[in-house]
């Protein structure tokens, strides 16, 4: 089991990054909120979860251990695989997920791509006694440039399958939220953009 990796970022793609560890490049699949915090050439530490299949070994990377734990817990629910678990963490923070499950907030859960009412009900039924109560606010690492978030949120949305035009509209929709902060958090803005798109 690989609990975490630490090293310089060698490459960043739409749904994954490559971290160099001891001269070896490890590919980690990450949701856009995590990818948005990375910078090529800089050293980062990412918590990891390995998904083993008959024909593959896949590493998933997370900004912190809390996201990793939720990722693994979500997959204990019937019919939930790593892609759906990643989508959940792209839209909702760990504490938002805990709150939605604890309060049986199906309207919040169906905002996750791939989750309909039946899947949302199953998440509540199977995870309510396991997921725990919200304990803290998990904030993303802020960007130092007040406008850099636009490009990263846009790239994250396109990476999740939205069209460039939809991504443009969503960036415009969350601009007032960014204007309220001197250091906008890309993961928070990305989640807000996904919620805006789910209402469109």
TrEMBL record:
The keyword DNA-binding applies. It is found in: Cytoplasm. The keyword DNA-binding applies. One of its GO terms (biological process) is DNA recombination. Belongs to the RuvA family. Its main location: cytoplasm. This is Holliday junction branch migration complex subunit RuvA. Transmembrane segments: none annotated. SMART domains: HhH1. Has three domains with a flexible linker between the domains II and III and assumes an 'L' shape. Domain III is highly mobile and contacts RuvB. InterPro entries: DNA_helicase_Holl-junc_RuvA_I, Hlx-hairpin-Hlx_DNA-bd_motif, NA-bd_OB-fold, RuvA, RuvA_2-like, RuvA_C, RuvA_C_sf. One of its GO terms (molecular function) is ATP binding. It comes from Kribbella voronezhensis. Homotetramer. Forms an RuvA(8)-RuvB(12)-Holliday junction (HJ) complex. HJ DNA is sandwiched between 2 RuvA tetramers; dsDNA enters through RuvA and exits via RuvB. An RuvB hexamer assembles on each DNA strand where it exits the tetramer. Each RuvB hexamer is contacted by two RuvA subunits (via domain III) on 2 adjacent RuvB subunits; this complex drives branch migration. In the full resolvosome a probable DNA-RuvA(4)-RuvB(12)-RuvC(2) complex forms which resolves the HJ. Residues 72-91, 107-126 form the Helix-hairpin-helix DNA-binding motif class domain. Gene3D superfamilies: 5' to 3' exonuclease, C-terminal subdomain, DNA helicase RuvA subunit, C-terminal domain, Nucleic acid-binding proteins. GO terms for cellular component: cytoplasm; Holliday junction helicase complex; Holliday junction resolvase complex. Keywords: ATP-binding, Cytoplasm, DNA damage, DNA recombination, DNA repair, DNA-binding, Helicase, Hydrolase, Nucleotide-binding. Residues 145-200 are annotated as: Domain III. The RuvA-RuvB-RuvC complex processes Holliday junction (HJ) DNA during genetic recombination and DNA repair, while the RuvA-RuvB complex plays an important role in the rescue of blocked DNA replication forks via replication fork reversal (RFR). RuvA specifically binds to HJ cruciform DNA, conferring on it an open structure. The RuvB hexamer acts as an ATP-dependent pump, pulling dsDNA into and through the RuvAB complex. HJ branch migration allows RuvC to scan DNA until it finds its consensus sequence, where it cleaves and resolves the cruciform DNA.
